[in-house]
Amino acid sequence: MRRISAGSECVVAAALLLAACGCGQQASEQPAAAAGSTAGTADAAAVKPVALRAADEPQSQQLAEQVRQAVAHLDAAALTKLASDSAFADRVLRGTDVSGSERREAVEGLSGTLQEIFTGVVQGCTNGGSYSFVRLVPRGGEFRPLFRLCLPELSGINYHELVVVQTADGAKIADVDVYLSGECVSESLRRLVLPALAASNRGLKASLSASEVQLLEFSDDVREIGNLQRSGQPKSALELFRRLPTVVQESEPLRRLKVRICRNLGPDELAEALQQLFQATAVEPGAGFAEVERLELLGQHAEVAAAVDRLREQTGDPYLGLLKIESLLKLDRGAEAAEAVAAAKAVSEGDADVALTDLRVRLHRRDFAGVAELLEGMQQSPDGAAEIPEYQEFLRSEAGQAWLQRQKTQSESP
Question: Is 397 a member of any domain?
Answer without folding.
Answer: no
